[in-house]
Amino acid sequence: MSSPLRILVLAHNHPDLQPGGTEVVARNLFRSICDGTPGVDGLFLAAVTASLRDAKPGTLLQGAPGGHADEALIRLPHFDRFFLSQIDTHGLAATLGPLLERLRPDIIHIHHPLQFGVETIALLRRLAPRRAKLVLTLHDYFAICPREGQLLTTEGRLCPGPALDACRRCLPDRSGTDFMLRQISLQDACNSIDALLAPSQFLKDRFVAAGWDARRISVLPNAVPTHSRPVAHRPLASGGRRDRFAFFGHINRFKGSLVALDASARLSKTGVAHKLSLHGGTAYQPEAFLAEFSAALAAAPAARHHGAYTAADLPARMGAADWVVVPSIWYENAPLVILEALHHRRPVICGDAGGMAELVRPGLDGLHAPIGDPEGWAEVMERAANEPDLWHSLVNSLQAPSGMDVMAAAHLDLYRRLLRPGPALPAAVAA
Description:
Elements: E1 5-11, H1 21-36, E2 40-48, E3 61-63, E4 71-75, E5 79-80, E6 85-86, H2 89-103, E7 107-110, H3 118-127, E8 133-137, H4 164-170, H5 176-190, E9 195-198, H6 201-209, E10 217-219, E11 244-248, H7 257-269, E12 275-279, H8 287-298, E13 303-307, H9 314-319, E14 323-326, H10 336-343, E15 348-351, H11 354-359, E16 366-369, H12 374-386, H13 388-397, H14 404-419
Parallel strand pairs: 1-2, 1-7, 2-4, 7-8, 8-9, 9-10, 11-12, 11-14, 12-13, 14-15, 15-16
Antiparallel strand pairs: 3-4, 5-6
Helix pairs in contact: 1-14, 2-3, 3-5, 7-8, 7-12
């Protein structure tokens, strides 16, 4: 009998504590692989900060919510977000050393350098068994954009990619040396990674344009659980219209809730009957944005904010929607809400660039609207509400997303190929 495949997965938070897209897809992938594949076991290790967990004397490790014995938390409060640097390498070495010795992983899959830091990559390379292979999924643009990975200028314009002068205009308090040191540390760390993954072709292209080696980055799309049946479309009375729009996601500036509310207000002013439901929490948002959001909500009489929701709440809330809107003002990468909407057979209206536009084929899976342009969004939403044949056409042509089993199989295939003897891969970043 062959020995089991052992996997260590690192994520920058646990989805039961902070249900962001990266955390959700990382844990779903881990559970799908470990629960659905004989001969595979491992550990899902999620980093948390002081805002979510108090320190435990003598250890950085804690039990994870959810009751799974193969999931744990590691408390890492000493993190520099600009340099993506974890200062407490001593504590990490003292914690990860015994853990790696006990688990002896064949694959170490890092789902984000946040909280763990670039130093952890070198530490894992040094402490892990010689046979172990390191995988890093590039879930967003953090590694190439020091402004929180948004690829947005301070004026809110889409940024094509990093350039020293442009980056200094966005972050004038940082010196040119800081930007160069950030780039060098990321380059050194990623050169020791055995495989880099991107959930979208668009994200890969942005990294390649920034100087990363295209040969190192494989595109492996995200997925969502599809074992549940799609929720039924809401029944319409005779003469009724498909004019119910729904936003799902965290309420913040970058996700575009203000754009959706402005578009809704414009529709109401011109007499276009519709409803806009916003589903998502507002935690950790600055007071200035919350004041803008409250004012925009008050100015949009057809809009309602229904607050935070859980995965269990999603089908019922999706059931009340005809359309799902993704008005993000940045490129996005591979938003899970789009996959969830397509699974439930809801056409999607999203921005016309980036990873979101890659997921939504205009005229087949939904419609594109101009990023950050409320007037343009209002025009597209008016068309959606007023053309009943359009909704039916899209519902009949949209493509259901792959399930987690497909995503798990693709990752397992990659892991096994990495473990076969063969030549070394090229450097991650062009010199």
